[in-house]
Amino acid sequence: MAAFGRFSQVLLRSSLTQTRRQLSAVAAGHGEQSGKTWKILTFVVALPGVGVCMLNTFLKEQHHSHEQPEFVPYTHLRIRSKRFPWGDGNKSLFHNPHVNALPDGYEGHE
């Protein structure tokens, strides 16, 4: 057991020494070029990539139909054994009336 304790202390010391060396290398100015590289990559690659993804999502959403699916009253769905503790007790916490149906159908449709 003592050998294990000595071995763990040696590993701990070596990892602390390695961390100190890395921090001193950054303090000595060796990490400045790396920081500039990542800053350039952020502005040249990452931000335009996010912009292209946003544009793609926006354009695809333009052609998407926003019709509600037909309500089918399946017996195994929307079972309410007790009321929710908020609101009228029939709607879930994140209820969306366009997407989430109540047990008797969508809201606002007869």
What amount of the residues lies in strands? under 5%
Rg measurement, Å? 29 Å
Outline: flat
Q: Largest sheet at a glance?
A: none
Approximately how much helix is present in the residues?
Answer: 40-55%
Q: Given the structure, what is the number of helices?
A: 2
| Low-pLDDT residue spans | none
Distance between the termini: 76 Å
Number of beta-strand segments = 0
Keywords:
flat; 110 residues; mainly alpha
What layout of secondary structure does this protein have?
Elements: H1 2-27, H2 32-62
Concise synopsis of the structure shown:
By secondary structure, the chain is mostly helical.
Describe the structure.
This protein is an all-alpha fold and 110 residues long. Helices cover 52% and strands 0% of the residues. It has two helices and no strands. It has helices at residues 2-27, 32-62. The radius of gyration is 29 Å and the shape is flat.
